[in-house]
Amino acid sequence: MNSKIKKLFFLSAIALISGLSSCTKDEVPVMPEAETPVFISNEGAYGNANASISVFYPTENKILNNVFQTANGRGIGDVLQSITVYNDRVYMVVNNSNKIEVAAKSDLKEKGVILGLNMPRYMVATGTTGYVSCWGDGGYIAKVNLSTLTIEDTLHVGSGPEQMLIKNQKLWVTNSGGFMYDSLISVIDLNNFTLAKTIVVSQVPRAIVEGRDDNIWVLCSGRVIYDDAWNPIGHVPSKLIEIKSSTYIIENEVEAFATVHPNQLLKAKDGNSFILGGGYGVNGLFRFELSNETLQTPAINEESFYGFGILPNGEIAGFKAFTFSSAGKMLRLTSSGTLIQEHEVGIGPNGLGI
Amino acid sequence: MQFAMRNIVLITILLWLSTALVGQYAPPDTAMPITGVEIWAEKIDLSPTGANQAFDTLFMRKTSNLDLGNFLSQNTNLQYKSYGLGGNSNLSMNGGLSHHVPIIWNGMNLQDPLNGGTNLSVIPTFFFDGIYIQKEASSALFGSGAMSGSIHLSQSKKFNDGLRVEAQGGMGSFGLFQGGWGLGFSSKKLITHTKLWSEKAENNFQFQNTQKFGRPTETQENAQYRQWGLSQILDYQLSSRQRIGLNVLYIQHQRNLAQPISATQSGQNQSDCSFRAQIHWSYYWKSWKTSIRNQTQWALMEYNDTLIALHAQHQSVTNTTDWDWSKRNSKNGQWQFGLQHAYESGKSDNLIANNYRSRIALFGSFANNPKSKLHGLISVRHEVIQNDLKLPALTLALDWKLKVNMNLRLSLANNYRIPTFNDLFWKEGMASGNVDLKEEHSYSSRLQYSYKTKIGHSSFNFEQGVFYYFYQDLIQWTPISGIWTPINRKAVRSLGSETSLQHLWTLKQFAITSKITYLFNPSQITSIYENENPNLIGKQLVYNSIHTLHCSVDLNYKNAGLLFNFKFESERFTTDDNLYSLDAFPLLDASAFYRFNVKQQEFFISIGINNLTQQSYQLMNNYAMPLTNYRINLKYYFHKPIKINK
User: Fold this and answer.
1) B-chain residues near A78 (CB < 8 A)
2) What is the mean pLDDT of chain A?
3) Nearest by CB: B478 against A20, A77, A325
4) What is the per-residue DSSP string for A277-324?
5) Is there a contact between A14 and B588 if contact means CB atoms under 8 Å apart?
6) Contact criterion met (CB below 8 Å) for B148 and B133
7) Percent of chain A scored above 70 by pLDDT?
């Protein structure tokens, strides 16, 4: 009798508790079909594997959080470094999970995964091929078949390759140095996937965008110089460097800041200016006018953003990360930097995929 | 390695056989040769009443050989965190964090000055004769760090106890092999007891990877470990008034570090080596005693990541000397006062510089006669750390015997913890210390009511406790701008209640002990500093369940027994804003034992089955835990008492 009672007790307890634990608080989001979505990459805290995607619909002014998790019943992984939207797919580059998750653009349902990457950072694509910058193994570019989601080839470049740009069948790669520092731009001929040129710029090149007249601009973040005891003793300034794409010659070099080290550079929608900012210790977003090639001060918005993006309508999305143990915010700004609205997003928002 | 472990098990069995033969000349003894242990309590105890919990030698013999973390996880309602089998583990209580619960070995603190923690998975319970959980905070008694409570590991020291031999062997799921040996001798003047422990496991269990595309069933990789350790006790009675002694604890542990289930590969491994030695001298005069104790603690940790060719070495040394005077067993009460000096140093590839600090503390305690209707303890500690005089820590505990079977207890304390070297000076790619950290303080109070009664063959013990902890400037490592950094949480309030009911039913040789404990413990951030996210106010502290239920049923018939442990933990938040959490989970473990005697020899056979219900769960975010797994242990004890001529 006693053993029966005990058994009943345990079974009841387990049943009750299992019932409690299976309750879900996630609300299934409905993604509007009529509008082009903007994907926000929330990288999550390093080591915690709580990266997520928020989806923003500018016209409806609607935002959905944690969409990949809700659509697939699992997380993305550890440190979502960037998102590339290409054709009908969304490619999520998950740095510390060494993979790229692939999902449908329409509903973020999982479609596959690209494995075998070592610390991937960014992806660009053309045709049926993707190119992924990877920090591992001394720094390399992986050539990925987007039909089979397999790696076809790899090519060593500089250390810590970051953002890339495809122009005239050439892949331009910034080499930041990764955990150290580098000063190289690698140019890869995509016809034969070989290194065509290496250009020495300033320290820590991270971002690259097209300018005017076939020229390419590179943001070199610079860095803080430390002594052996990690005391800061100086700075390598941040610079904007203009390179003629056809000749690989540096045409202009503009010092951005002597002691501030932004890590993002994007072209404004009108194509007449760049916006730069983002990163630790960078207070504000700044405009760089292409007409006179000068950096405008003061900042168009003085908030400190972890990252930012340009929305399809030309507005700016500024991302505040706070700590990486709580939700961040997207500050929707006009193209001139005035705050329109705030939205809560995931942990550690760092950029957009459109 | 496998070959070596098979040998260890084989040698263990041979040792049993040989000692069984040796023991045959001893006179038969039908009673279990389990005697009480003399715990080397170096501080006046808070009272054994209240919510404190103790495990004695017999209980530990009946259960499987577990590391300290798993033992406490199965048998208590403490908040346990583990990076999987063999991985780093720790625990917390009363709504605090793991570094608020020091591990106290024979009265002295084992917390590492680098990280403020003690990895419970590398400490085998085999070395100890008693484990005692003190759920009341007391920096006044145990110094910096004892902000939430403390866990005490003790070893038996008894003169005139004779010869003791023990041998243990075990094996279990996922390539687990264990072996332990002990040899002790105790005469009128000398106690010596040596114990050796060795263990290894492959930890290649299977789990469903819910974080990967296709949710594949995977086998845990890169999670193997092996360890061995030595424990030595040496005590000598110099004269009727003087006693000297030495305790040594040496543990070497090597393990590969399993990757989180969100990762695709891991090449990390870690090697821990620690040496702890205590020497002591005591002088007795009437009811007075003076003691000088010195503890040296050296720890070396080496970390490697073969994927990114990273190697880091961390080394710490702590030397602590206590000189105290105490007057015990007096009708007028017990006194203790003394002076403690501690020197800590840390050296690490990831510290800005080699670091050291010196600490001097004055401490004193008074407790009135424990037989008094109102029994009280007051304890105070005043510490100077690197010429910085800290606020005095005070503990007050009152036990009021309302009736013979009814007790009311109140404890109050203010406690502190200074930042560790890692907290202050760590520097590497993904983490950074914070030299601006303030020390932590906690103000704790607990009111506990207990009632005992007996009805027929049943006896009941009911306990109800309510507690309030207020943590000020609580130090918590938090990812800021992608870099893990320690920050001060301005205020965290932990308010809770713990209810337990124990029932013992005995009839002839049949006994059932059942116990149910429910803990309700919201522990919330109540105030933040500038520039912090205001949404954090009112949020539960990460990795602290609000609801914990623990039930145990211990059935014993003659020399056999069956023990069930059931534990339920509600969801645990993994981010400060409580948006992400680990699911609640129930766990059911069972173990059975049978013991028999051959003259003065005692044999235990125990089988433990963990996670009987195949529960998929995580204790740390994205680290897999095994489904049902088992352990089998064979234990042998031989005791030949000394004949004392009267």
Assistant:
1) 260, 262-263, 622
2) 88
3) A325
4) E-STT-EEEEEEETTTTEE-SS-SEEEE-SEEEE-TTS-EEEEE--BT
5) yes
6) no
7) 90
Burial profile A152-188: b = 16 or more Cβ within 10 angstroms, e = fewer = eebbebbbbbbbbbeeeebbbbbbbbbeebbbbbbbb
CB contact under 8 A, B586 and A46: no
pLDDT at A166 over 80: yes
Report DSSP letters for B512-528, one per residue: EEEEEEEEE--EEEEE-
Inform me whether the C-beta atom of residue B560 falls under 8 Å from chain A C-beta atoms. Answer: no
Q: Enter the pTM of the model.
A: 0.85
Closest-approach residue (CA) in chain A for B583 = A21
Write the pLDDT tens digit of every residue in B169-207. 999 999 999 999 999 999 999 999 999 999 999 999 999
Q: Which of residues 247-266 of B touch A (CB under 8 A)?
A: 260-265
What is the reported pLDDT for B51?
Answer: 57
Residue ranges of chain B with per-residue pLDDT less than 70: 1-51, 329-330, 354, 644-646
Give the minimum alpha-carbon distance from B536 to chain A in angstroms, rounded to a whole number: 8
| DSSP β-ladder status, B103-105 and B150-154 | parallel
Mean pLDDT of A65-92: 95
* Preferred mutation among A42, A322, A343 to probe B, highest tally of B CBs within 10 A: A322
User: Is it the case that residue A339 has pLDDT exceeding 80?
Assistant: yes
- What is the tens place of the pLDDT at every residue in B4-18? 444 434 333 333 333
**What totals of helices (H) and strands (E) does chain A contain, helices first?**
2, 31
Instruction: Please write the tens of the pLDDT for every residue from A232-290.
Output: 899 999 999 999 999 999 999 999 999 999 999 999 998 999 999 998 788 999 999 99
The CA–CA distances, whole Å, from B349 to B311, B420, B486 equal 9, 16, 19
**Collapsing DSSP states into helix, strand and coil, what is residue A137?**
helix
* A48 with B622: Cβ contact below 8 A: yes
**Is the Cβ pair B211, A49 closer than 8 Å?**
yes
Residue of B nearest to A10 (CA): B566
Do A48 and B263 count as a contact with CB atoms less than 8 A apart?
no
Interchain pair B575, A322: CB under 8 A: no
pLDDT at residue number B63: 77
Identify the pLDDT of residue A12: 37
B137 close to A (CB below 8 A): no
* pLDDT (0 to 100) of residue B20: 33
For B213, the closest of A49, A112, A322 (CB atoms) is: A112
Mean predicted confidence (pLDDT) in A17-31: 41
Which letter does DSSP use for residue B50 in this model? T
- pLDDT score recorded for residue B586: 96
> Got the DSSP string for A212-235?
STTEEEEEE--EEEE-TTS-EEEE
Which of A137, A323, A344, A347 should one mutate to test binding to chain B, selecting the residue with the greatest count of B CBs within 10 A?
Answer: A323
CA distances from B47 to A142, A276, B52, B87 (A): 65, 64, 8, 34
With CA atoms as reference, the chain A residue closest to B353 would be: A229
Tokens 């923003």 identify what position?
A: A56
Q: pLDDT at position B259, please?
A: 85
Tell me the average pLDDT across A179-197.
94
For residues B43 and B338, the answer to whether their CB atoms sit within 8 Å is: no
The answer to whether the CB atoms of B482 and A324 lie below 8 A apart is: yes
Residue to test with chain B: of A304, A326, A350, most B Cβ within 10 A: A326
State phi, psi for A330 to the nearest 5 degrees: -105, 125
